[in-house]
Amino acid sequence: MTNTDAASQGTTAAQTEAEERRRHREEARKIRTREAAARKNTASKDGQWAAGDRTPLNPNEEMKSTGDPLLVRERIESMYSKWGFWSIPPGDLRGRFRWWGLYTQRRQGIDGGKTAILEPHQLDDEYFMLRIRSDGGQLSAAQAREIGALSEEFGRDTADVSDRQNIQLHWIAIENVPEIFRRVEEVGLLCTEACGDVPRVILGSPVAGVSDDELIDPTPQMREIMDKYIGSPEFSNLPRKFKTAFTGQPIPDILHEVQDIAFCAVEHPELGIGYDLWVGGGLSVNPFLGKRLGVFVKPEQAAEVWAGVAGIFRDHGYRRLRTRARLKFLLKAWGPEKFLQVLQDDYLGYALPEGPEPKIAKPGDRGDHVGIHQQKDGNYYVGVAPVAGRVSGTKLKKIADIAESVGSDRIRLTPLQKILVLDIPEDRVSDVVNGLRALELESDPGEFHRNVIACTGIEYCKLAIVETKQTAREVVKTLDEVFPDLDNPITVHVNGCPNSCARVQIADIGFKGQLVLDEESGEQVPGFQVHLGGRLGRGEDNDFGRKIRGHKVTEKGMPEYVERVTRNYLADRNASDETFADWAFRAEEELIK
Predict the structure, then answer these.
(1) Residue 67 three-state SS
(2) Could you tell me if 46 and 178 lie in one domain?
(3) Counting CB atoms within 10 angstroms of each CB, which of 209, 305, 431, 526 has the fewest?
(4) Arithmetic mean of pLDDT over the chain
């Protein structure tokens, strides 16, 4: 090839890319124009389908109104994977792809100060994050090994355990997506509705079926919902995401208060074992605690009740503003009594009996399942803590090898970014513990190692402002050396933006990413707003973290801040059993700054 030919090809490629960008901008402009027309004279409407408001009132609703987003898979496989990244129009790229677990990841080298000012196409890298569903956090050894292999082959060996009990891969190219889908499904997993305005991955107790004190194994109920409704057009267009959780534990271990719908095992004095029903929880910028509906759900009713609540959300949920489109806003407007009445009258056709509440956790109860625990069948499970959920494809394959070497075929992920290996014979427990320790996966970690979680952060996320995973690792490294014998757990949650993927409002110390003023340089630098003393599982004592007006912490100063506040807690607490959360709410302001 001559230099002239090469230059000509380079020019052609540049022109093609420029044309694609122009086409993307024009499509986005047309959508905005159509939406502006649709919104005219609809200012008083909330976009509730049940009220007859079917006109799409924002670009997301417009995108969904043109056809079931699940249908994008055919285009991925037949078109985009063959034509390349720049062939994907914006409506698919930043919208419908999410219905198959795909988000464009952040272009490398863009600092947090530009997150809110750049256009989406300027933030997009030509690679994707991919979520693989593992409902209930349940994986076989073969499934864990296959995810690991996909990570090594297509994802630059990336793999993170999310706090939704699934695995996220990065660096996925569109050309490889059909093969990844094929291999994921070949081992019995899905990417279907891993993201999008749909029923997301179902949280489940990671010790379902093995815990020696569980009331019921909820796996059959989760599986029934999966088989009937995941991937069904019936619920593939909800106002926004819909988060579900099940636990059979007498003390819930699935953060039921912050889920859209949660089923918590209880024993009814007359009807036996079933579930207590909670709805309308959620965090993010406007956090709400879920509400008990005060009714008892039999196991055989669970899927139908789930579909009823999801149907209420679909039909009555607010679709005008994305910021008000979660179920929590509808529940707040209606109240639990009206919500239950609509559920029974319009969706079930029968009344649910009153039922008991689940038990309340005692202060200091962990519920993270880290450590060595005996199962009800006499075998053991071992729970380990990756730092902030960061593992790799290589580690997943080795975890699968370790499990199989002792005759186990069950691995679990937890809502707190932990990993469990189940079904370990007593005489092989030490083999598993040592094998996992060699992978830096500790079953007896330091307190900060054990209790830190973090979202994806600026490394890959287009919404993020600050680094999270490495910042969390620095906290662990520093604080576990300073406090090797900490006698009360202190949870540290690190989030890269004002949303709450890492649940900052319910942590002992929660960090919400934003730009802050560095007092030394006088410049804006990555940092955090601080939330202190978040509490769940405490009944009437549940609360979101305390915020100190105007108080911010820089990213670099975060480990020192955690150390200072921890020292103040240890010196000022009333007794050794006073939790950090209780202390944080009563402490003088100077002690928590």
Answers:
(1) coil
(2) yes
(3) 431
(4) 93
Tokens (6 digits) for 417 = 């970014």
Q: In what order do the strands lie in the sheet with 160-161?
A: 102-106, 124-132, 167-172, 160-161
Q: Give the residue carrying structure tokens 């008991």.
A: 356
Q: Which of 123, 152, 186 is the last residue of a domain?
A: 186
Main-chain phi, psi angles of 463, to 5 degrees:
-90, -15
* Cβ atoms of 228 and 244 closer than 8 Å: no
Q: How many helices (H) and strands (E) are present in the chain, helices listed first?
A: 18, 19
pLDDT for position 22: 64
- CB count within 10 Å of CB 13 equals 11
For the chain, the straight-line distance linking the first and the last C-alpha, in angstroms and rounded, comes to 65
pLDDT of 458 over the 60 cut: yes
> Is residue 451's pLDDT more than 80?
yes
* Residue 5: pLDDT over 90: no
Distance CA 486, CA 230 (A): 44
Angle in degrees, 0-180, between the axes of helices 141-154 and 393-405, rounded to the nearest 10: 160
- Using CA atoms, how far apart are residues 341 and 343, in angstroms rounded to an integer? 5
- Residue 68: domain span: 18-186
- Identify whether the C-beta of residue 545 lies closer than 8 Å to the C-beta of residue 506: yes
- The count of domains in the chain is 3
Tokens of 338: 């009206």
Q: What is the DSSP string of 68-97?
A: -GGGHHHHIIIIIHHH-GGG--HHHHTTGG
pLDDT at 165 over 70: yes
CATH of the domain at 110: 3.90.480.20
**What average pLDDT score do residues 129-149 get?**
98
CATH number of the domain to which 278 belongs: 3.30.413.10
| CA–CA separation, 471 and 247 (whole Å) | 32
- pLDDT, position 6: 45
Residue type, 526: P
CA angle at 267 for the pair 276 and 313, rounded to the nearest 5°: 15
The helix (H) or strand (E) run that includes residue 6 is helix 3-39
Q: Is 555 helix (H, G, I), strand (E, B) or coil?
A: coil
